[in-house]
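@channel sequence for tomorrow's demo:
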Amino acid sequence: MGAAGEVKLFHGGCPHDCPDTCSMVYEVQDGKLIGVRGNAEHPMTRGGLCVKLKDYEKRHAHPDRLLYPMRRTGPKGSKQFERISWDEALDTIVSRWQALIAEHGPQSIMPNSYLGHQGLVHGLNGGDAFFNRLGATVCERTFCGEGSCTAWLLTVGPTAGVDPESFLHAKYIVIWACNSVSTNLHHWHIVKDAQKKGAKVVVIDSYASRTAKEADWHIAPKPGTDGALAMAMMNVIISEGLVDTDYVEKYTVGYDELAERAAQRTPEWAEAITGVPAADIRRFAREYATTQPAAIRLGVALERNYGGSQAIRAVTCLPALTGAWRHVGGGALQFPVWEHPYRFDVISRPDLIPEGTQVVNNLQLGRVLLGEIDLKVPIRSMMVWNTNPVTQAPETDKIIRGLQREDLFVVVADHFISDTAAYADIVLPAAMGAEMEDMILSWGHLYLTYNAKCVEPPGEALPNNEIFRRLAKRLGFEEDNFKWSDGECLEHYVDWDSPACEGIDLAYLREHGFAKLKVGTADTRARHREGNFPTPSGKCQLRVEGARNFVAGPFRQMYEGFQPGELLDELPDYVPSRESSQTNAALAARYPLSILSPKSHGFLNSCYANMEQKIRGQGEQFVLIHELDAAARKIADGERVEVFNDRGAFAAVANLSADVSPGVVLATLGYWRQLNQGTVNCISSAEFGDMGHSPTFSDNLVEVRKAS
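structure tokens (generated this afternoon):
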């Protein structure tokens, strides 16, 4: 025990949905979290924290924090609750579920979670084993990355690609559809270091983001047209003899077929689609092919149009065509998590899923709850944790109407009465980062990150995993997963015998806070110098035969009668958006503006968007609009407007800006609906993208008018 008043330090890991997964230091005095700072010893995160996390202790101690279990007493959405005990809350949940199971079966119950916490124990998959054991409907979570992952795996397999720290050695860096300054800050520091050493930095984004403004060259294709740009780059690289023929012959499959298709995808063809001048496309392709090492950072936003995954396939082929993989700092970076030794089969226990269990997708939650989707077993109860679908999921007006169903029993575990928790029948107070032990999943670098429990949760708040342990006990579940402590979970959730964990164990992480996996150093790693891609052929698959997409439709049978989806195109190509002035003239006549909805700089999805100091930093809900579009609508800078389409509407302040092109508007994600008149996902479509049931958050047409 330390002396009274002594400040004690503990290892922490940022739990938020961000590729950086910062190593942190908690400062605790007399049992209270008084400060949080970055761990200066971490080679990548370097002691820095983003604007969201720099005062993380204030979120823990926020006066609106949920402290006790609550039961709804007023209409759904009214935020009228009364305090109850944990026993009463858990007994109510279990009795309601048992009644539903007896009448309708366990598939009438649906879990809904996402990356509100990124821990292995308390995060995205933390409740999977419980609900799989229960026999509940499986929730397919494809908010972010599944289209990208499908395209990446088809092309190069489960490889981490370029070590993010190896970008320091690159001479030509392409940041493609990623606003690194706001969403990948610590990798951006490495890119800036490379830029200072002479590397050229090119940012490809449909608007002038904070990152684009710091680049040497910003290329701005129209939304959803990146695939055309990538295919035209191939055309130039191949037609002008810039291909590394030795690399292609030894380490790729399908070059001849790809070359035949690329021959038709000229820069002039792409200019008509993307709006990028053909001369710029040629210059870009030549520079990229002839300046080695060349590295591409693929952003998740690249998938968020109907043809986004095919665009990612095209981009992922480029390093093989030019032989960029030969070099330290050359190649492409998607998600390094592919080389992390996490044991998701132990975490999630898919073996417990009863045969024939239905699957619903979290992107189509509104349609599911309103019965627009013909389910084998309609949903009559839902438990929500680590997500806030009323602001984060598309078609949010439908979600609200679904949550208002009196016959839908809703349980929400959260830190606050969020937009979603407002519609709950039972609200459970959840613990925050410093209040529970965990390891934080890292999908943006090659480090394991440990988080110590260093303070007790306030009031009666509990960690997510403890909530599921208590529910499992009441339901009589006897599997070991439901009896492990958090520390025992960590012992089982990581493959500590993996070569990547050589010299690393949980004791080491508890002492040091982080450890880099043994998968090559930033100064030497060129994993695919001689191919060795983790694909069936061992080569980069420029062409893939026989691959099938997920089955079309909102849900599928896991086993019984499962039919795979349609055959995918064997080659990458440009696939047009569903909603654009070029592809849907009738819709564009009514809603002529393409809308982008990137992450906010000051919020982490909807986290922090209820905190006054964060709102002040981020600013009130706004829409960026070009002055030509504003003038045509007689909208002045700073005027209140309504952004709308057939799916919904939200109110915002118009910010006239040259950061967006004519025909494009932008509103950022994360604002709370209860503090605003609608949010940007009111207008978002729940239609899937071309692969992996990916979202189409950037494939939407809207109109803007003065607020009435």
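heads up for whoever presents: Residues 18 and 183 are 7 Å apart (CA to CA).
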